[in-house]
Amino acid sequence: MPQTKKEIVKVEDLHKRYGKEEVLKGISMEVDEGEVVILVGPSGTGKSTLLRCINQLTRPDSGKVWVNGIELTDPKTDIDKARQHIGMVFQDFNLFNHLTALDNVMLGLTQVLKMEKEAARNKAMEELDRVGLCNKFMNYPGQLSGGQKQRVAIARSLAMEPIVMLFDEPTSALDPELIGEVLVVMKDLAMAGMTMICVTHEIGFARDVSTRIVFMEHGDIVEQGSPSKMLNNPDLPRTKQFLGKISDLH
Amino acid sequence: MEELRVLVPYILRGLSVTLEVTGVALSIGLFFGAILAILRVYGGDLLSRILTVYTSVLRALPHILLLLVIYFLIARIVNLSPFWAGSLSLGIISSAYQAEIIRGAILAVPRGQMMAARSIGMPTIKAIWHVILPQAFRHAIPPWSNEAAIVIKDSSLVYVLGVPEILRQAQYYSAREYQPFLAYVTVAVIYFLLTFTTNRGLDALEKRIRIPGF
């Protein structure tokens, strides 16, 4: 008997407009538990906007978003509570600049989840250990490399025990030689069964760990499918052209 | 020299008043300035526009004029001593300048800081308190140091209300002893020492709480 997968994220007919430009033109998609979905497409096609609409950092003009069965676009929903369990990792890290690595990870635990300081500290150290940075816990963001900053940012999200992780071009701001260490952490996470939605052009990562690649252009989903199909044998010539181009780069 | 032995203690009797007026005015200015700044940045369009009028008007008028207007306005409503009315007036004036200083400092904190805080489920107020303000206050120290020097000097304005701070004391002294030059130079030296040490102190504070590696 096939196991029915639990639906973690559902997006329905999402529209978003910035001035004259329609960034999202009615996007619908579902992401099941344990899926690793890669969003690719040319810049300015609404990938990041879609990601930010999922945790409502950007409010869509119309359409609905559910995460774990809760409708986030419902004005009655406590959005702060919902966001506690939606991890987000940003292109430019956005670590809290005035706090050490440890305090960056602890802040959400003590202030949002109301954990005791000692328990929060232990949990934060565990998460830093998971991304290989427990020896850097006293460093401020300014004293970490880009790759280390991003790993702390991942630890900060993981500490909140998210049910889904959103990655917004997590390696785009990194020097090429620092990309690997972040991808290793993301791979481990995917292997451990985390539900992930990643905007990235790291095709190697997509090939190795994703369950689905979604190709977006001009605010629409052009084509989606398994990585092997999308990378080797897509239905549309435009998909082949775009994915071929970024595959060549890697 | 003999004169100084009488003059200096006489003027120094006003020093605690000068310090108290300054301290009260700066504190009131900081408290309301911070609230004004936060509301201007996060309070939405309409509120922001109303508050811009407040800071623009207060910053456009001479402080001595504002002091008199606010003093007589307060005097119509409640019965406050000249000391409190004067300090409160200076605090209200300073709040307009401090609001601008803190607003600039808040805007200097990268936008991503707020986004990151909201993304882990922090409500806006908490994010402002734990993430934005600790960084903004660090940015604000150098311009705030400048404002502190201005308020120290403006504390002399309350002498028009008859509050016995150091300038008022010097005036009494020169009227009594016919030594205006010596009296006013002594006051000048005291103001210089006050502003100088305050600015140095704030410089030291800025260095002390600077974020490592930032």
Tell me what the structure shows.
The complex is a heterodimer of chains A (250) and B (214). By secondary structure, chain A is an alpha/beta fold. Chain A has helices at residues 47-54, 79-83, 101-111, 117-130, 146-158, 176-191, 203-209, 227-232, 237-249; strands at residues 7-18, 21-32, 36-40, 62-67, 70-71, 86-89, 164-168, 196-199, 212-217, 220-225. Chain A folds into 2 domains: 1-85 and 162-250, P-loop containing nucleotide triphosphate hydrolases (Rossmann fold), CATH 3.40.50.300; 92-161, no CATH class. In chain A, the strands form 2 sheets. Chain A has a 6-stranded mixed β-sheet, sandwiched between helices. In chain A, strands 2-1-4-5 form a 4-stranded antiparallel β-sheet, with helices on one face. The radius of gyration of chain A is 18 Å and the shape is globular. Chain A starts with 6 loop residues before the first strand and ends with a helix. Chain B is mainly α and 214 residues long. The mean pLDDT of chain B is 94.
Most extensive interface: A-B, 33 and 22 residues
Q: In terms of per-residue confidence, which ranges of chain A show pLDDT below 50 for 5 or more consecutive residues?
A: none
H-E string of chain A: EEEHEEHEHHHEHEHEEHH
Can you tell me the residue ranges of chain B where pLDDT is under 50 for at least 5 consecutive residues?
Answer: none
What is the name of the CATH class of the domain at 18-164 in chain B?
A: Mainly Alpha
The CATH topology label of the domain at 18-164 in chain B is MetI-like fold
The largest β sheet of chain B comes out as: none
Shape of chain A: globular
As a percent range, the share of helical residues of chain A equals: 25-40%
**How many helices of chain B does DSSP assign?**
9
Task: Provide the domain count of chain A.
Answer: 2
Superfamily (CATH H level) name of the domain at 18-164 in chain B: MetI-like
Strand content of chain A: 15-25%
Radius of gyration of chain A in whole Å, from Cα?
18 Å
